[in-house]
Amino acid sequence: MTNQTGWERNKRILFDEMVEHYDKARWGYPDELYADIFRYSGPGQGKKALEIGAGTGKATAPFLDSGYDVTAVEMSRKMSGFLLEKFKEYDHFRVLTSTFEEALLDDETYDLVFAATSFHWVDAEIGCPKVFRILKSGGAFALFRSNPVPAIGEEIYEEIQTVYEKTYYRHYPSKERPVRNSREDWMKPSEIRKRFGFDGLARYGFKDVTMKLYHASRTFRADEYIGLLDTFSDHRSLPADLRMALYEGIREVILRHGGHHRVDYVFQLYLGRKRERPIRFHTYAPQNTDGNRCGKFLPVCFLPCKDSIFRSTAPFLHPYERASSLTRLKLNLLSFEIAPSVRLRRQEASERVFPHRCINIRTPFCGTFSRC
Fold first, then answer.
1. Neighbours of 324 (CB within 10 A)
2. Which are the contacts of 280, defined by CB distance < 8 A and separation ≥ 6?
3. 270 and 330 belong to one structural domain
4. Looking at the structure, do residues 60 and 188 belong to the same domain, yes or no?
5. Angle at CA of residue 137, ends 113 and 38, nearest 5°
6. Which of 257, 6, 263 is closest to 150 using CA atoms?
7. Under DSSP, is residue 61 helix (H, G, I), strand (E, B) or coil?
8. Less Cβ around it within 10 Å: N or C end of the chain?
9. Smallest Cα–Cα separation from 271: which of 146, 142, 184?
10. Average pLDDT, stretch 339-362?
11. How far, CA to CA in Å, does 358 sit from each of 252, 309, 328?
12. Is the N-terminal amide bond of 286 cis, ω within 30° of 0?
């Protein structure tokens, strides 16, 4: 028994154990979904795309075939090798073996960043600002994934759930049972967080945010369905005795019902676009240490964000991104894009703090100003 869910970030190393099995068991995405991405991001010829968590390339080929120059970021060395072999005929494909959080990527480089059933493994507080930073102005971010729809009330589904109660939920007693979502439910911030790991793209400065849903079904033989389940980290993390009992119980149910099990799926496509420029400017008169206005009004841009968290004129200066990864906030001279042109000296740059609720910026000529 555990309070974990089986989807903790340290579980992503499990995929290194099942490369070929994963590629065989998992299935792809609807053609209509890809068509909507290309309509949103524009033709791929001559453009650069980055895929986060490419796995075995279940979603990669359509982007290569559309003309995108694709860089795949994949942390598993075995999956990276599989990708290179699978797409060796494409001269506009490369693989970077790294987690996305740690990958060294240049700012404003990519026209499209996409992630197929993988972004939930990324620390979104690092990942979303990083995507914003590496996208070109007007570039698109596309997240998509598949979600099985619980067939509540159907005999075979209910019998399989009885097997889960005796095995799976003995190990994960606190996990929620499956529920059937309405179209409106999929759009809720709580559901976006559950599926992608954050509340919404608008929070990170993306515009033209939209979500589309697609429906499809697949019929599995008993061994195929169990093979699919065995590619899920929560199932792989079960103690061996419970995992085997779960699989055997499911196999017996499917065989009793004719040897086939149909599963309905909802595919989510979540899209956002990098803003071309900061959306509005305010003048802010900082105070001297004695509380009086210093008389120098500074234009400061605030991007829309939850709880009015301060953001500078440069979108990459997002307070949620860890200072160690802010390549533009090294202790060398840095223009903070505040007029008159303020350049923070080394000591002053080191005094800046990035708490979650407020940022204080020490300027060379009038003390400290802040926005909370």
1. 8
2. 301, 302
3. no
4. yes
5. 45
6. 263
7. helix
8. N
9. 142
10. 35
11. 57, 6, 19
12. no
Question: Would you say residue 336 has pLDDT above 60?
Answer: no
How many Å from the N-terminal Cα to the C-terminal Cα in the chain?
43
Which of 247, 274, 301 is the endpoint of a domain?
274
Per-residue model confidence as pLDDT tens digits over 169-211: 999 998 889 999 999 999 999 999 999 999 999 999 999 999 9
State both tokens at 192: 């976006």
* Number of domains present in the structure of the chain: 2
Residue 221 lies in a domain: no
**Is the pLDDT higher at 8 or at 289?**
8
Shared domain check, 269 and 320: no
Contact criterion met (CB below 8 Å) for 269 and 211: yes
Give the amino acid at 156.
Answer: I
Mean pLDDT of the chain: 80
Which pTM value belongs to this model? 0.74
* 55 lies in the same domain as 17: yes
Q: What is the dihedral of CA 202, 205, 207, 209, to 10 degrees?
A: -30
Task: Say whether both 195 and 301 belong to one domain.
Answer: no
Are 14 and 122 members of one domain? yes
Highest-pLDDT range among 10-19, 247-256, 274-283, 352-361: 247-256
Task: Please compute Rg for the chain using Cα positions.
Answer: 24
Please check whether residues 196 and 288 belong to one and the same domain.
Answer: no
Residue 242 lies in a domain: no
Last residue of a domain, one of 255, 274, 293: 274
Say what the pLDDT of residue 277 is: 57
